[in-house]
Amino acid sequence: MRYFHVHVMTVLALLWMSLTGQAARAQLGGGAPHVEARLVTETDHPAPGQHVTLAFVMTPAPGWHGYWENPGDAGKGMELRWSLPSGARAGALRYPVPETLLLSGLMNHVYEGRYAVLVDVETPKQARAGDRLPFKVHADWLACTQTICVPEQQDLSIELTVGDGAVSPMRRAEFDDYRARLPRPLGGQARFERRGDIVRIAIPFPASASITQPYFFRRTDGATSYAAPQIISRNGDAVIVEARWGGPAISTLDGILRIGEHAGLAISAVSGAVPATGTTISFGAAAQEHQGAGPIFWALTGALLGGLLLNIMPCVFPILSLKAISLARSGGDPVAAKREASAYSAGVMLTCLALGAALLALRAGGASIGWAFQLQNPAVILLLLVLAWAIALNLAGLFHLNAIDAGDDLTRKGGTHGAFWTGVLVAFVATPCTGPFMAAALGAALVLPIAAALGVFAGLGLGLALPFLAIAYVPALGRAMPKPGAWMATFQKILSVPMMLTAAALLWLVGRQGGQGAIGIGAVLLVAVTVVLLVLGRTQRRGRSFGLAAALLVLAMWGVGARMLPVLVARSQVAGDATTFSDAALEAARAKGNGVFLYFTADWCLTCKVNEAAAIDRTEVRQAFAKAGVTMMVGDWTNGDPVIGRFLEAHDRSGVPLYLWYAPGA
Questions:
Q1: H/E/C letters for each residue in 266-289?
Q2: Residue 198's beta-bridge partner residues?
Q3: Which strand (E) or helix (H) includes residue 394?
Q4: How far apart are CA 142 and CA 78, in angstroms?
Q5: Residues of 281-311 as b/e, b for ≥16 C-beta within 10 angstroms?
Q6: How many Å apart are CA 389 and CA 381, to the nearest integer?
Q7: Is the C-alpha dihedral spanning 360, 363, 369, 370 positive or negative?
């Protein structure tokens, strides 16, 4: 039971809408439902006693939304009244991972696009082939915009004919898409503790697993307010959620931890000790309503300090080799140094603004992504790899590039251009590194008005560029810089080393994202780029230059490599000691008459990773399997593969890990 002072207005609004619903419908849509419902079945011919999945496919009209089973501070989930054939039973509703919507200080758990609520029904065991099974249901739900709500209801029905339970490929694909958006069971035990009105939850989650825009949707009812900001952090192999919810004492806490776009983990936490807060990854994202200038001021301050501290973060330091050259050059001409510092700052700030605007636009379009989204694509990493390697070769003297060459006169136009593009590169690569103050500032930016949010992103860029501006515009700092001279040629070659290390790190990163195939593409691309730039350097020393042609050729090579990524990455995923699971692969392995060890895992399953490290990914285990002719097969459920989901259900398991041994010939 929710608390009266939070929901009294919601109850009164629902009462009023129940009396005036028809008038509201006439005004807003001429009687048409604002959230249209369809009832569909995975198979039209279920076998006797078979569990059949039905889907309530809900399609909100533009500007309207429906609600999750726990709607939050206001709203109403779906309610059903079934009329079933004798001997049939309907299970509980299974909702997809919801979205957040904050209105007038109230947090709503909603769906703003098409969604499907699933339910498993069991057909009568005594049914015979050809029997007709009518399933009827009266459904009630609430359809809302940001200003008005309309209670809606519909009588839905579907008739099935008892048969062999076959599922058509088209229907299978449709329901696989629905299941992919359901929360997946957590492969470990979550714990929570209460400290007054503060609830802290520890959720097992490997430190190596990625998570974007995390948010905890509380299924257990009774919170005094769901709009309280959530502070989410990572402490080793655990995600820590903290929020001020209040409410009565509870023994378990159920909910969903969102880990990505339409992806989440089903949590059932028990009372227990929770580790200390770790590195913050979300602070009130999509959960705070900022009013007045105070929150905006603190967000801007945090962004400025966060950008400033990025200059000394280890993940950014290799990129500072580019800035070090300009710092050394700035002692030559104060006027030109100011011009170059301004150009560099413009490059940094415009890039931060562009990234921030793209992030806000993508999120407004429904994508669940966070800061640093530009480094989540192997093709983008491949482009940065080529660029970093080209800069390293330029610094080493293999070829000449006016824009960043240390010997150019500061008054030349190329120096200003070089400073601007240096700022672009630094911002593009450096901003994904999360430093102090950044998490809170960027989390706030995602829920601020657009103008204020863009101001926060610009503040981050200003903080990152601030050391350059200080050296250029503060005479005392400028005088402290070394004067330009012959030593700069040697210094430039030394700085090629950290840029090469940066390229090596990017090659490792593209391999982490795309597998061995991506590493192969990157290595071949680096060799080809080296050859092209070597030829360019020789032509430059002969007094000729084909810089534009070389740049176009390098870009074309990157394009070919990016196009090859999906093919080679797919090949790399089936390489190695373990065979990738599929029904056909399992049958083929068993048909050989040898033993098969099949296990299912996921990157977000801590128990899975511990078991693999302790007992599976060991040299002696693999040698023993190889000696005995055992086929090792792995099913990766990280992205909710529906084929694996059905296989788990067939073995009475709702989640991972699952380990199966098929004895030879059995």
A1: EEEEEECCCCCCCEEEEECCCCCC
A2: 195, 244
A3: helix 378-395
A4: 8
A5: bbbbbbbbbbeeeebbeebbebbbbbbbbbb
A6: 12
A7: positive
pLDDT tens digit string along 188-230?
A: 899 999 887 889 999 999 888 888 889 999 998 877 778 888 8
Rounded Cα distance between 83 and 136, Å, is 5
Are 348 and 472 in contact, with CB atoms under 8 Å apart?
A: no
- The number of beta carbons lying within 10 Å of the beta carbon of residue 29 is 14
Question: Are 503 and 350 a contacting pair, CB within 8 Å?
Answer: no
Contact between 41 and 158 (Cβ < 8 Å) = yes
642 half-sphere exposure, CB direction, 13 A CA radius: 13
For 306, the 3-state DSSP assignment is: helix
pTM exceeds 0.70:
no
Rounded CA separation 320/312 (Å) = 9
pLDDT per position as a tens digit, 115-157: 999 999 999 999 999 999 999 999 999 888 887 778 889 999 9
Residue 439: what are its φ and ψ, rounded to 5°?
-60, -50
Strands 263-271 and 184-185: parallel
Q: How many helices (H) and strands (E) would you count in the chain? A: 17, 23
Q: What percent of the chain has pLDDT over 70?
A: 73
Which residue matches tokens 């249901």?
137
Give the relative orientation of helices 516-541 and 378-395 as an angle to the nearest 10 degrees: 30
